[in-house]
């Protein structure tokens, strides 16, 4: 079913959907995520999630236990991160907290239009279906997060370019820190837990049926079968295109906000501005177990290194 049909077919009874942009993003009202959701609530939230790609809930009274419980209502969860440290008491949670990179790397990265943009954990053969991010401590201003709609990005390509990229496959891997010096400990952690996968450049969304430009700028390193010059030029074109402003949404956090996004059809970018302030910022992420992506021709992704992400 197309997103347009979903919108026309959905008449939510338990939630209110307030769209935030033309192609991406909606705020959801009328639900308390600290309590178990009814089957009807879950279905309506999921329809909004598939349609709008990223949805937001304000003023939620959560703690780590209720955040994990809420996330599990939408599927099995992965370990918080397959490389970085997680909360021992809640291994499903990865802390997106201020200064978390200080012990891992130093120096200023080389900035491109797509720097910082990524889809979660695409080096894995089975990237997460959904990601959940809960704002426990947020900055009074600054620290906004952005998302882009990769299905809209695909649709905006010319018919000639769509036909070309439909047939391509790309290699996603960790260790893309252009211009940044990483510590030996951090390099060893990645080497010991490295994952590398070959995904279609265009995936077919398993629920909406839309074609998605599966470009995770941070992790997509190589397009199979191209020369280095062709590879670098095409990657720059696709990565720049994928994050064009008209496909994106910028979200201002407030205490108790929660974002839930479709990792199969979006990329997002974490902000850097608040690092220059004294403001604290503590957000926490969970991810639900995903399936292996499928290309336009029906061929699935394949693993080149490492093991699949597993439920815990």
Structure description:
This protein has 312 residues and is an alpha+beta fold. The chain has a single domain (3-305), classed as 4-Layer Sandwich (Double-stranded beta-helix). It is 21% helix and 25% strand. It has helices spanning 3-9, 39-52, 64-72, 150-155, 159-165, 184-192, 228-242; strands at residues 16-19, 26-29, 54-57, 94-97, 105-106, 117-118, 130-137, 145-149, 169-173, 181-182, 196-200, 202-204, 211-213, 220-223, 248-251, 258-262, 266-269, 282-287, 302-305. The strands form five sheets. The protein has a seven-stranded mixed beta sheet, covered by helices on one side. Strands 6-17-8-15 form a four-stranded antiparallel beta sheet. The protein has a four-stranded antiparallel beta sheet with strand order 14-9-11-19. Strand 12 and strand 13 (211-213) form a beta hairpin. Helix 1 (3-9) packs antiparallel against helix 2 (39-52). It is globular, with a radius of gyration of 19 Å. It starts with a helix and ends in a 7-residue tail after the last strand. The model is unreliable at 1-9 (pLDDT under 50).
Architecture blueprint of SSEs:
Layout: H1 3-9, E1 16-19, E2 26-29, H2 39-52, E3 54-57, H3 64-72, E4 94-97, E5 105-106, E6 117-118, E7 130-137, E8 145-149, H4 150-155, H5 159-165, E9 169-173, E10 181-182, H6 184-192, E11 196-200, E12 202-204, E13 211-213, E14 220-223, H7 228-242, E15 248-251, E16 258-262, E17 266-269, E18 282-287, E19 302-305
Parallel strand pairs: 2-3
Antiparallel strand pairs: 1-2, 3-16, 4-18, 5-10, 6-17, 7-16, 7-18, 8-15, 8-17, 9-11, 9-14, 11-19, 12-13
């Amino acid at each position: 079913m197309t997103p347009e049909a979903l919108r026309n077919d959905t008449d939510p009874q338990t939630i209110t959907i307030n769209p935030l942009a033309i192609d991406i993003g909606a705020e959801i009202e009328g639900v308390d995520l600290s309590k178990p959701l009814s089957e009807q609530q879950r279905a309506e939230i999921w329809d909004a999630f598939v349609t709008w790609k990223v949805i937001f809930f304000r003023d939620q009274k959560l703690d780590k236990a209720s955040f994990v419980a809420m996330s599990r209502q939408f599927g099995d969860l992965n370990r918080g991160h397959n490389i970085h440290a997680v909360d021992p008491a809640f291994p499903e949670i990865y802390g997106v907290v201020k200064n978390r990179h200080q012990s891992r790397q130093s120096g200023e990265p080389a900035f491109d239009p797509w720097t910082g943009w990524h889809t979660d954990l695409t080096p894995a053969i089975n990237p997460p279906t959904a990601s959940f991010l809960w704002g426990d401590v947020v900055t009074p201003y600054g620290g906004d997060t952005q998302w882009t709609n990769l299905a809209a990005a695909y649709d905006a390509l010319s018919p000639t370019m769509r036909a070309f990229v439909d047939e391509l496959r790309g290699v996603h891997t960790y260790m893309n820190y252009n211009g940044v010096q990483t510590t030996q400990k951090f390099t060893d952690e990645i080497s010991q837990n490295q994952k590398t996968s070959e995904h279609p450049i265009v995936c077919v969304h398993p629920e909406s049926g839309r074609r998605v430009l599966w470009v995770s700028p941070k992790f997509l390193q190589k397009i199979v079968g191209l020369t280095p010059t062709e590879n670098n030029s095409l990657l720059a074109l696709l990565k720049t295109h994928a994050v064009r402003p008209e496909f994106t949404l910028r979200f201002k956090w407030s205490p108790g906000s929660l974002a839930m996004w479709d990792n199969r059809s979006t990329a997002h970018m974490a902000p850097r501005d608040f690092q220059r302030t004294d403001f604290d910022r503590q957000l926490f992420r969970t991810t639900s177990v995903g399936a292996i992506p499928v290309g336009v021709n029906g061929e699935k992704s394949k693993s080149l290194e490492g093991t699949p992400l597993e439920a815990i």
